[in-house]
Write a structure and sequence with these properties.
Length: about 200
């Protein structure tokens, strides 16, 4: 059994949240690929320091230029603890002074979903790390279906994808600079790029 509709929350606008360290310093840590500017596929937990007092978007944010996702505890709190344990790697976020931000975690999911779009689509495999960047214009949807093993996945847009049943738990969470969208599962892609899982 797989869901037929998903909820996708992703940072889509607002001010940028930047990393404290420069590209070369982060590349030297080993988990980030400078060729495609993304965490390497095998990367699990990431600890990172941002160049401001707190992330700009809420409840999900992205560190500009590094494709590192950040999630607020407020959002993690609406997810079932079992789902967090089985699906996510959470790491530490520090502010510009090096103090841990108690209300925020970096987030990596065991399962990565490419949220597919409909036009102006492009994708390739990174020669250096094997990651697959993907870009397309909306409308967005899921293809192929997500395995039911994964209650929470991460999108290439540094967002989180989970069952649409969670939609009614979002009430009261402050939203800033994010898009919340319900995604259908399509039987075929509309972007002309065929099937790929990564
Ligand atoms: Zn790469």
């Amino acid at each position: 059994m797989t869901n037929d509709r998903y909820l996708h929350i992703w940072p889509s606008g607002g001010d940028l949240t930047e990393a404290y360290l420069a590209d070369e310093e982060i590349e030297a840590e080993g988990w980030w690929c400078a060729a495609c500017r993304s965490p390497r596929p095998e990367t699990k937990k990431i600890n990172i320091r941002i160049n401001s007092k707190k992330p700009e978007n809420n409840p999900v944010c992205r560190i500009s230029g590094f494709f590192v996702g950040i999630v607020s505890l407020e959002l993690l709190d609406i997810l079932d603890p079992e789902d967090i344990k089985n699906c996510l790697y959470l790491g530490r976020v520090e502010d510009c002074n090096g103090f841990p931000l108690a209300d925020w975690m970096t987030v990596r999911a065991r399962n990565r979903v490419i949220v597919r779009g409909s036009s102006h689509a492009s994708t390739r495999l990174c020669d250096a790390c094997g990651y697959r960047p993907y870009f397309a214009m909306p409308p967005n949807y899921i293809f192929p279906p997500i395995s039911s093993k994964f209650a929470v996945s991460q999108s290439q847009l540094s967002g989180l994808v989970f069952s649409a049943d969670y939609a009614n738990r979002l009430d009261g969470i402050r939203m800033k600079g994010v898009t919340v969208e319900e995604l259908p599962v399509f039987k075929a892609p509309l972007d002309g790029l065929g099937e790929f899982s990564n």
